[in-house]
Amino acid sequence: MSIRVLVVDDQELVREGLAMVLENDDGLEVVGEAGTGIEALSKARQHRPDVVLMDIRMPEMDGLTATQRLLEDADWPVKVIILTTFDPDEYVYEALRAGASAFVLKDIPRAELVAAVRAVADGGALLAPSITRRLIERFVGTLPIDPNPSPGLDLLTDREREVLVAIGRGFNNAEISEQLFIGNATVKTHINSLFTKLGLRDRAQAVVFAYENGLVVPGAGDT
After folding, report:
1. What distance in Å separates the CA atoms of residue 155 and residue 148, rounded to the nearest whole number?
2. What are the pLDDT digits (tens) for 15-50?
3. Rounded to two decimals, what is the model's pTM?
4. What's the chain's average pLDDT?
5. Going from the N-terminus, what domains does the chain have, and what CATH number goes with each?
6. How many Cβ atoms are within 10 Å of 73's Cβ, its own excluded?
């Protein structure tokens, strides 16, 4: 079964270019295009895509608001990938907080775009963790750490907490396995468990959670 994708960008050439790249892959199907956040919500309800490529800066309704409303209202398992420019966008962090699974640059190579859509559709994995981490550090550093950490932290075992910190630092499963001297299957078990205990959807939310609860400190060598 093909992965159904909705492409949202207010620039027609960008939108059509992205759609063309995705349509050339046998496993992907572009079910619709939209040029505004309002149109994106309408098209999403109509076509029920698996993945939405969502631009941030658009007229009528920006991508941040559209992402929040889509993920709050959707009654099907849709994932959102944020489209942004090369320079870190101040809205991307808020989009990740709203539940977006990842972000990609608009000039991303074709093969990487396809891989990004596939990765998010398959499990919502956070893409380019080192870039995302620097982006989050830039903006979360201006926000106060919650003095009352989430009560869910008390539910984690010491090992699950270590794994969460490693995710916050941008490590993939293989790197976590090597760092903590545990098998890859064990890493996956810990990740699934901590996601369930904390009510997290994917690694993107886990990174944000780790920063906001002070488990990873911006600029403290986690680059």
Report:
1. 15
2. 999 999 999 998 999 999 999 999 999 999 999 999
3. 0.74
4. 85
5. 3-127 (3.40.50.2300), 140-212 (1.10.10.10)
6. 10
